[in-house]
């Protein structure tokens, strides 16, 4: 049975923030990621988008879900943009759709590299002779572009990516 994308905002069965058609358009405008994306079948693209959504769903976001029945974390209420405008809580932010596509591109391209860009970001210090590599204490597990896009939605949009609530987040009882 083939997977299908449901990107309807606030839907109880949604499994993606972006439709396949919109993702195809996003990748058609990208220089580097367009070729690997175009080489995939539609079924593979759907699987990749759903997996990217699953990863984004592990993050903790500011604001609150718009409804208690929506399957995904977005749309959200009580968020203000960097410009001070209220973020529409009826739709999925375009920057979130872009973040999902960037996550899909990362999933598609990072797995087949011996030493990827993300791996290089783990290195804090490198000495060539004699070889001396010092790895950063905190591993880079999220593509920087994904973090940047989520942060661009709102300063409070992305609380943490480590599945644990930050100490600055108040627990609701």
SSE layout and pairings?
Layout: H1 20-28, H2 34-38, H3 42-56, E1 60-61, E2 64-65, E3 76-77, H4 94-110, H5 117-121, E4 123-127, E5 132-135, H6 144-153, E6 158-160
Antiparallel strand pairs: 1-6, 2-3, 4-5
List keywords for this structure.
disordered C terminus, alpha+beta, two-stranded antiparallel sheet, 10% strand, 6 helices, two-stranded antiparallel ribbon, 35% helix, 173 residues, 6 strands
Proportion of residues in helical segments: 25-40%
Q: List SSEs in N-to-C order.
A: HHHEEEHHEEHE
Q: What portion of the residues fall into strands of 2 or more residues?
A: 5-15%
Main sheet strand line-up: 1-6
Count of distinct strands: 6
Q: Cα distance, first to last residue?
A: 41 Å
Structure described in brief:
This protein is of the alpha+beta class.
């Amino acid at each position: 049975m083939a997977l299908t994308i449901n990107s309807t905002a606030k839907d109880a069965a949604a499994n993606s923030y972006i439709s396949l058609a919109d993702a195809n358009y996003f990748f058609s405008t990208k220089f580097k990621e367009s070729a690997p994306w175009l080489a995939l079948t539609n079924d593979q693209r759907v699987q990749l988008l759903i997996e990217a959504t699953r990863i984004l769903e592990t993050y903790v976001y500011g604001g609150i879900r718009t409804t208690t029945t929506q399957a995904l974390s977005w749309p959200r209420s009580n968020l203000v943009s960097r410009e001070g405008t209220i973020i529409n809580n009826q739709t999925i932010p375009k920057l979130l759709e872009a973040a999902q596509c960037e996550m899909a591109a990362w999933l598609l391209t990072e797995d087949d590299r011996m030493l990827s860009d993300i791996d290089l970001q783990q290195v804090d210090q490198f000495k060539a002779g004699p070889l001396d590599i010092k790895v950063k204490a905190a591993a880079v597990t999220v593509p920087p572009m994904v973090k940047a896009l989520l942060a661009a939605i709102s300063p409070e949009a992305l609380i943490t990516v480590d599945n644990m609530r930050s100490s600055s987040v108040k627990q609701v009882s």
